[in-house]
Design goal:
alpha+beta; Glutaredoxin
């Protein structure tokens, strides 16, 4: 009887051990599967977030940069001379007649000598003027080169003409700088470059209606008048040397 009870107890003990092992194994399996599922879900979520962060394979920034470059070019923000470069594309000009009331201001010539505006524009011969500054890199070199070509095309006729280039940047354009600039374009003795104080420079520009707020906004303008006249021929635009010579001959009756 004792032997039978012990045997039964042994079988029951073994069954309990086996059942516990199975339960433990199943629990571990469920835990492993759960962890694996979480990692897969987590990995999928990270991959999705990354895809949202860079949806276009980095091509969008380049497109945006191209658009910004285009806007800067159109608006002129990247190039303060953008409107001047546009002017260089056209040689069209307009002609008009004007009577200007000029103040008798004190100016300085490229020899460093003081002079007066009215004496400069009334020398007893025809006068031709423009407005420039020596650090300009767009329309000013073109305007000065055009004046040099006018001087060349007129030849001996230029001796009977007074040419004047007014600096609109007197704080930078000293007489020495103007002499160097004039020499660069082979300006003859009939061609004078004038500077002065900032206030007088602005007053001259306003008197001739060419003041545009600051030097970066200036426009290409050529003015000329006969020796015994008060009416100025105004040419707005980058006229060719041949056009200016033709206007000059028309002015003096040749």
């Amino acid at each position: 009887m004792a032997f039978t009870s012990n045997a039964r107890f042994g079988r029951l003990y073994k069954a309990l051990l086996w059942g516990g092992a199975v339960t433990l194994a199943l629990g571990l399996a469920v835990t492993v599967l759960a962890l694996a599922g979480n990692e897969q879900d987590s990995g999928g979520a990270m991959s999705h977030d990354h895809a949202v962060e860079h949806p276009a394979g980095h091509t969008q920034p380049a497109a945006e940069q191209t658009a910004n470059d285009g806007l800067e070019t159109i608006s002129g923000e990247a190039d303060p001379h953008a409107h001047h470069r546009h002017m260089l594309e056209s040689k069209a000009y307009s002609r008009s007649l004007h009577d200007y009331q000029l103040p008798d201001l004190e100016l300085v010539n490229m020899a460093g000598e003081k002079t007066r505006l009215l004496s400069e524009v009334n020398p007893g011969k025809p006068v031709m003027v423009n407005f420039i500054f020596t650090t300009c890199t767009t329309i000013c070199p073109v305007m000065i080169a055009t004046f040099a070509q006018v001087q060349s095309e007129l030849g001996a006729e230029s001796d009977a003409l007074r040419m004047i280039s007014f600096s609109i940047d007197p704080e930078h354009d000293t007489p020495e700088r103007l002499r160097e600039y004039a020499g660069r374009f082979n300006a003859g003795p009939q061609w004078q470059f004038l500077t002065g104080s900032l206030a007088d420079s602005v007053a001259v520009q306003k008197a001739f209606d060419v003041y545009r707020g600051n030097k970066m906004n200036h426009e290409p303008t050529t003015l000329m008048k006969a020796a015994d006249g008060d009416t100025w021929v105004r040419i707005d635009g980058l006229a060719r040397a041949a056009d200016i010579v033709a206007e000059y001959h028309r002015l003096v009756g040749r």
